[in-house]
Amino acid sequence: MTTSVTSPQVGTDAAATGSTPVTLTRRSGRWIDGWNPEDGVFWQSEGRAIARRNLGWSIFAEFLGFIVWQLWSIVVVMLPAAGFTFSSSEAFWLISLPSLVGATMRFPYTFMVARFGGRNWTMISAGLLLIPSILLGIVVGNPETPFGVMLAVAALAGFGGGNFASSMANITYFFPQKEKGWALGLNAAGGNIGTAVAQFAVPIVVTAGAAATLNISLAGWMWVPLILVAIWGAWRYMDNLSNAKSDAAASAAALREPHLWLLALLYIGTFGSFIGFASVFPKLIADQFPEFSTIQVGQAAVSLAFLGALVGSLARPYGGRLADRVGGARVTVGAFTVMALGALSLVWTMPLHNFGVFLACFLVLFSATGIGNGSTYRMIPNVFAARTLALGIEGEAKVRMQRKAAAALGLISAIGAYGGFVIPQVLNLSQQTTGAYTGAFYGFVIAYALLLTLTIAVYIVPRRSLAGQRI
Prior knowledge:
By secondary structure, the chain is mostly helical. The chain has 19 helices and six strands.
């Protein structure tokens, strides 16, 4: 069935201005033709309500994606109490492999919205979350489960990491240029906070009323009803836009742009540090301060590890806002400076074996990663705009550069997610070779110092290649 709807307000505006009215054609399967959010009258009369409805359900689905992606970060520290005897190195692999798979999945997920439709792919991608959730609930219920099987199930949690790319790609089509930043910021923050929710809720649910035992299988099963709600919500309330087209040519061109790789390196340092430390924070607490790994509240246990992901998620929007005011590069340099000092403070204070100091240092580090996450992401379109000025590009070539910038946002978000694998594995290597995490944190300090130097040299010092613009 096909229906066409033209807003009377749009028609009136068209008569006055001579412009063509926006006419939405709705087809079966909730497909919409003729979507044009840049038309102000259409946006005010009809478009904003549709876009916000799709944004709400997109945030919910992505939120669950991050939860599933990061489930193993909190489950791993509970495995010994459930009868599992994995080594510390094996635990690090269970924590880091979902990030590796999730980062890789972001590349194909970026193009799935154009192939299947935003509504349809949200249903599919949410449905895929059932696989790692149910399998986790099964395998952790048997302490005899081989490590290889556990690793395979942990890898499947990477489906949740891919959701970010498709969700962001979908939402960008719904909103006008002037509101994309707001919409994409909400979408990203809604997903990031899923990590904190998983680390807060799972210990409570698996210990509540369990007496001397853990209902650790609930760590997977508890999300199944919410995933089903997300699938139903996408089916009932979301839409597919026929003008949502993938741009493989722009992606290929973006990969040939040197600034994409420089910005991706910075994003590994900011977002990669956030997701990497968030995934490993519960284990670090359990290793260094086992008495604070969980805190008993009535019949349930609470882990304070969720505070790191929560602080980092909430800080991200402020990084973007600061970048708008004083420049993304300056905020990013400040973030890397605080991250380096935070990592150095951890090295200096860990011998004190004071949990309060340890937690405070990490929360400062998480805050800086969140702010840097927002500011670095904000730098991307500014860098490509500066390149347009420097090259004197006009007309069709300018449009191609804008498409390249849009493609770069997705590619850089995918590359940056590999930090979620690198951070735990660096910590694992440090522990295996030296018996402590000190070497890893010294390495992070050096990496952050190099990244802030790179940011200053390329994006703060005026350069002809960027038209002397402040990034």
